[in-house]
Design goal:
By secondary structure, the protein is an alpha+beta fold. The protein has two domains: 42 residues, Alpha-Beta Plaits, CATH 3.30.70.3550; 150 residues, Leucyl/phenylalanyl-tRNA-protein transferase, C-terminal domain (Aminopeptidase). 34% of the residues lie in helices and 25% in strands. The chain is built from seven helices and ten strands. The strands form two sheets. A seven-stranded mixed β-sheet has the order 5-6-7-8-9-4-10, with helices on both faces. It has a three-stranded antiparallel β-sheet with strand order 1-3-2, covered by helices on one side. The N and C termini lie far apart (36 Å).
Length: 209
C-alpha cells in the first residue's frame, strides 16, 4: 500500500506518517504537499508538517553589519551545484544528525535528477561552507548548512536567497526555526498559510538553473 502523505493528518507535533521509502517520487510528492522526512538512524522514516512552519521572506533576511562587511570583502568565492556531495557530507559531519546514509543517498539522487541543489562557499580551493535544499516549481526547501570557516554558511545562505529571488521563486521553506536561522530573519507562519503559499509556489514555472 502506498504511503499516504497529507498534512491534514499531522498530529499535534506535526508528525504526518511513519514508514514508506525515500524514492524520488515519494520525496517529490511529500515536498509538493508541505511534508518532509526527518528521522535518526535506527528509526523508521518519519514524515513531518509542523505547525507553525518556518520560512525566510526574501525581503527580510537580516544581515548584521559584520556579515555585510564579510560579503562585501569577497572573502568567499561562491558557486552553484559544484560540490553537492561535499556539502551534504559537511552538513552530516556532526555528533548528532538526521542526515543518515540513506538520506545522503536519496538526496544525491535528487541532485542528479535536478531537484536538489547546493551553494558552496570557498576559500581558494578549500570548501569553507555551504547550504543545500530541494527546488520544485517556485518552492525551495532549505535542508541544512555547514561551515568550516566562520560565516561561510551564512554568506552562502544570503547568496542563495538573493539568487532564488532573482530566479522568481515564491517560497523559501526552512522547516523549523533554529537559533541561527532566527538570527538571520527566519519567521514562523501558521501551517495553513504555508500550504496556501505553497500552492501558489507550485504554479510557478521557474527553474533553479
Amino acid at each position: 500500500m502506498a504511503l499516504i502523505l497529507r498534512p491534514e493528518y499531522a498530529d499535534e507535533y506535526g508528525l504526518v506518517a511513519v514508514g514508506g521509502d525515500l524514492r524520488i517520487a515519494t520525496l517529490l510528492r511529500a515536498y509538493r504537499n508541505g511534508i518532509f522526512p526527518w528521522f535518526s538512524d535506527g528509526e523508521p522514516i518519519l514524515w513531518w508538517s509542523p505547525d507553525p512552519r518556518a520560512i525566510f521572506e526574501f525581503d527580510r533576511f537580516y544581515l548584521s553589519r559584520r556579515l555585510a562587511r564579510t560579503i562585501r570583502s569577497g572573502k568567499f568565492r561562491l558557486t552553484i551545484n559544484q560540490a553537492f556531495g561535499a556539502v551534504i557530507a559537511g552538513c552530516a559531519d556532526r555528533d548528532s544528525t538526521w542526515i543518515t546514509a540513506d538520506m545522503i543517498e536519496a538526496y544525491t539522487r535528487l541532485h542528479a535528477l535536478g531537484h536538489a541543489h547546493s551553494i558552496e562557499a570557498w576559500q581558494g580551493d578549500q570548501l569553507a561552507g555551504g547550504v543545500y535544499g530541494v527546488g520544485i516549481g517556485g518552492l525551495f526547501a532549505g535542508e541544512s548548512m555547514f561551515h568550516k570557516v566562520r560565516d561561510a554558511s551564512k554568506v552562502a545562505l544570503a547568496y542563495l536567497l538573493e539568487y532564488l529571488n532573482i530566479r522568481g521563486f515564491a517560497l523559501f521553506d526552512t522547516q523549523v526555526v533554529t537559533e541561527v536561522t532566527a538570527s538571520l530573519g527566519a519567521i514562523e507562519i501558521p501551517r495553513a498559510d504555508y500550504l496556501a503559499r505553497l500552492k501558489i509556489a507550485m504554479e510557478r514555472r521557474v527553474t533553479f538553473v
